Amino acid sequence: MTTENSREATLLRVGAACQAVYVALVRGLATADRLHAIAGWNPTADIHLHRHMTRRDAMEDLKQMSVGDVLLDDDDNLGLAMSGLIVELPEDTIRIWHTTESDISAPRSETGR
């Protein structure tokens, strides 16, 4: 079976999962902010911890929502840089990393896709 890779077909396949990832990340940000506030920490003092807490909470939400296959090892070693997460769908993989880049070009190879 050939997968349709037009923008519209891709959005139909991944749209709901992307929305769930967005909701989970917003909740993760709220959790990280709340935990930093409880501790009296400034998130910018250790930005990696804040991002990791955000991702960790988002991954737990995504596991509970059963959004695709959220990749976690049995021991919950997330296996990515602290701000990244991966959601495997039947025909697609959604990879999310934190970046400060404002212009990210579309992938040009099958591996990049």
Notes on the protein architecture:
- A three-stranded antiparallel sheet has the order 1-2-3.
- The protein has helices at 7-39, 47-65, and strands spanning 69-70, 85-88, 93-96.
- It is mainly α.
- A hairpin with a 4-residue loop joins strand 2 and strand 3 (93-96).
- The mean pLDDT is 78.
- The chain has one domain.
Record the SSE blueprint.
Layout lengths: L6 H33 L7 H19 L3 E2 L14 E4 L4 E4 L17
Antiparallel strand pairs: 1-2, 2-3
Helix pairs in contact: 1-2
Given helix and strand content, the structural type is: mainly alpha
Number of strands: 3
- CA radius of gyration is 16 Å
Instruction: Please report which band the strand proportion falls in: under 5%, 5-15%, 15-25%, 25-35%, 35-45% or over 45%.
Output: 5-15%
Overall outline: globular
State the strand order across the main sheet.
Answer: 1-2-3
Order of SSEs:
HHEEE
Helix content: 40-55%
Number of discrete helical segments: 2
Number of separate domains: 1
Spatial separation of the terminal alpha carbons: 18 Å
In summary, what is this structure?
With 113 residues, the protein is mainly alpha-helical.
Annotation keywords:
2 helices, globular, three-stranded antiparallel β-sheet, mainly alpha, 113 residues
